[in-house]
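Hi team,

Filling in the usual template for the complex we talked about on Friday. All components are listed, including any nucleic acid strands or ligand strings, so the model treats them as one assembly.

SUBMITTER: L.P.
PURPOSE: interface mapping
COMPONENTS: two
RESIDUES: 532
SEQUENCES:
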Amino acid sequence: MNIFLKELKSHRKSLIFWSIGIFLMVTSGMVKYESLSSSGQPMNEMLAGMPKSLLAVLGIGEFDISTASGYYGLLYIYLLLMATIHSAMLGATIIAKEERDKTTEFLFVKPVSRNGAILAKLAAAFVNILILNIVTFVSSLVLVGKYSNGEVVTGDIAITMAGMFILQLLFMVIGSSLAAVKRKSKTAASFAAVILLLTYLISVVIDLNEGIEGLKYLTPFKYFEAKNIMFGGGLEFIYVLLSGGWIAVLTAVTFIFYKKRDLNV
Amino acid sequence: MRMNILLHELRAYRKSTIIWTISLIMVAALFMSFYPSFTKDTEEFRKLLEGYPAALREAFGINLDNFFSILGFYCYGLSFVTLCGAIQAMNLGTGIISKEVREKTADFLLTKPVTRAAILTNKLLAAFISIIVTNIFYITAAILLAYQVATENFDVGIFLLLSLTVLFIQLIFLGLGIIVSVIFQKIKSVLTVSLATVFAFYFLGMFSSTSGDEAKRYLSPFKYFDTAYIMEHSNYETPFLITSALFIILAIGISYFIYGKKDIHTV
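RESULT (copied from the run log):
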């Protein structure tokens, strides 16, 4: 319990910064929507004729950006990126920091098993990403609601946040498993960032070229795309199963490998 | 002794420089490889666009000659290259001082017969060299790639100008990183700080600026070099060049000042 509380406390400041960041992100996005929506209609007509790859290049995708919820769908991928960066870094550092700060010995001379320590740390990370998710949810709800002119957005936003939470969990355990497996755990955060940026890039190029659509199972950023899950689409079972499976496997990897780990002191 | 620090830093950066250079080239290659299918996709749309009144196209900021050319398409990929490059530079900058504190080697270094200014100079120089090397390899590779996929002739001069924006933005983030590094010396995780900062500016640039709103462009370095402007005028926008230069000089100057006086905690 002490480790859990200690971890919560040591990540409090960064969590506050991330929450402010994500709030500002939603705000600036919706402010931009307001200036865009007042600029008039011929836009949609023109967008309708564009091929998919061009829309991707323009950064619009397949949304009706004349509505607040459509614009939010556009914004969602960036919220997702932010939240996953946060959770990947958190997952990696929360495990790796004992070795980095040379406090491993201090921790493990206490009457606590490695499993117990990891459990407490992952629980603390879990609480952190949950809070960030809730902050995002509430800011989106309030700000999108403000510009939506009565359009009901709660359900759509809730479903995107559910998707985001699954991906946050996924990237958290990607980070933590890397920190547990890699011999130099200091590099786990960089490695997790590489995985994140790479999978994001893959998702971007899939939009550019329909021929490589099959790669979509490789990149979590394609699992819960706003355009598929919003507007009544819902989370696809196959992707929920896939990410659930990955989360379970990587959590197990974290525990098993950390237990056997030759700790650098 | 002075040389030693420089060489040591360069050696420490060698592996990461190689990895970053390869990644930047890979990102560019990834996007370039889709150019042929993109041209095919857009052929029809291009004809459609030509039917639109020029004023409407103008409002979109779509310049037909540029937009569908290899240069226009390169700009799209370039925004991701720039993002990665900014992370590299910010990492270098943020790590410069904080790594000595984090790895508890600051007092080891400072007991050597070198001034703090000399230490900072050498470290900066090493980071600078690492960035320059990355850019030389990146630009060479990018030009070769462009020649491979281009369907028609393009202006190499403009291509160079576009590619050089990566270097400028990297220098800005290097400066920003150093400032952060000397002010908050107890940075535990360099990558977290640099990723968060770089992405914050990236998003800020994306969502704060609407076309015509010049003042807000100063907020994010990612908006200092407007690719459409570069393609049209084959030049950079002077006010933003000056801002960048001023920022870099100020950042480095302030860093020397702060680092010269700062208390360094021993282990």
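MY TAKE: The longest helix of chain B spans residues 116-149. The radius of gyration of chain B is 21 Å.

Thanks, L.
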